[in-house]
Amino acid sequence: MTDRIEKLLQFLHSNPKDCFLNHALALEYVKSGDEMNAKKFFEINLSNDAGYVATYYHLGKLLERTGNTQEATAIYEQGMAQAKNAKDNHSYNELQGAYEDLVY
Questions:
Q1: Which of 12, 46, 64, 103 sits 20 to 30 Å CA-CA off 80?
Q2: How many domains, in total, are found in the chain?
Q3: Per-residue confidence in pLDDT tens, the chain, 104 aa
Q4: Are 41 and 25 in contact (CB under 8 A)?
Q5: What is the Cα–Cα distance from 104 to 102, expressed in whole angstroms?
Q6: Domain of 63: which CATH number?
Q7: Residue range of the domain that includes 80
Q8: The whole model's pTM is what?
Q9: DSSP conformation class of 94
């Protein structure tokens, strides 16, 4: 386990609902090739705060890589709705692009 993962786990121990920490940990797991744990922490993030828009893109990409295209499509759709609600046009456009690449 990398030092970054260990440190993020320590930080999360005292603040388990911190979306930034959960997202950062999930990305570290992606980098290390541990897609199962990455997915787990992306999903924890969404259950803690469905409005944390950054998670949708990265979870969608992970699901695509693992062959779960239907799940990825649904995640992109949910993310676009959340980004639209947050008036986050940049994230909306990224999610829409990923969605269109997958669907069309």
A1: 12
A2: 1
A3: 689 999 999 999 999 999 999 999 999 999 999 999 999 999 999 999 999 999 999 999 999 999 999 999 999 999 999 999 999 999 999 999 999 999 98
A4: yes
A5: 6
A6: 1.25.40.10
A7: 3-103
A8: 0.94
A9: H
